[in-house]
Amino acid sequence: MLLPQTGSNTANQAVVIGLAGSLVLYAVYAQKRWFTPVLNTPLILLFAWLVVSTATSIDPSLSGRRVVLTAIVFVIVAVTLLLPKDVERFADLIAAAALIVLVISYGGVMLAPHYAVHQAGELLEPEHAGHWRGPFTHKNGAGAAMVMCVFMGLYVARRRSAFVGWFITAAAALFLVCSMAKTSIALLLPSLLLAWVISKLRSTSRRLLVVGGLLSLLLLLTVGSVLVPVVASFNASVMADPSFTNRTDIWRFAFSAVAARPIFGSGFEAFWGSEDVFFGESTSWANRAANSHDGYLDVLLGTGFPGLCIVVWLFIVEPIRNLKIIEDAQSDPVTALFFTQLWIYGVFFAGLETFFFTNGGPVWFMFLMAILGLQFQAKARHRSRSVSTP
Prior knowledge:
By secondary structure, the protein is mainly α.
């Protein structure tokens, strides 16, 4: 995939475009109006604003390519949800995908540990020696993927096979622990608990209050600590590392860039790694960071305050609204809970790591699957009610 700080890979782009094209052809053949459930106001506004952000970007060419790739990934995820004939087939595909990831991950650890396990001789972060990463480039990526597999296993256990589902869950949980991915380990149980709480609340406003309140608190204690001295003092009094492993330097640098271009931003996925930033003057090492380690801050940095508002609408408000429609129609609560678990984890993971619009990552793909899955369920229930109304 095309990273912000690298050039394009023609072979990768050809494969992605070919895959997207074949899936679209299938969707057109199977369902003439497959795109109707996907489109909604915040999604249309998002891509419209990304075009504006590209036009004002510090690197319009790079931003433009990233927008196209993002649109392709949206299409791939949307059509993937249409491939199964029913929820049983969907659960089978979920089980197969999780088992493939686990077989490759454990196979790597057992057969090629020098590749699948961090080594002490690595130039970057040798302190991670012994931490499992499987086929992923870093233990944090492996940890996030294993959290996804835990959710997938729980869904398969409820929907299809208890034995297969719990096997996937246990295997993924063990690999997660061995990866020592602290963020993912810390978020797993709270995500499961919060998803259950959300499923029990019947009020959209209460759900927004719970999710929005907890997310705001998380952001205040992390990125907010560089803007609010009282929070920084509190963190210093209760945390062994109030810098969040030197992330505070990155956040200060990012906020200074936001202040320079608060409306349009620096350009969609164009800031980190650009020549002006990487080789520019800085009072710290932060200008050489790969990202800000906060998804919401990176959206703000790249697309400005309007872009962040649209992302919050699409990624947080719209799923909660769709949950209400699904529940009112009493439609497949098991699948809705699975999507909710994926969505909740993504919402809070983005407060600690950058994964929004990272088109090569499993978390982004599954997060989109959750959002569009809830959208599909809500639109299907809405249409069925409309047809049945005399």
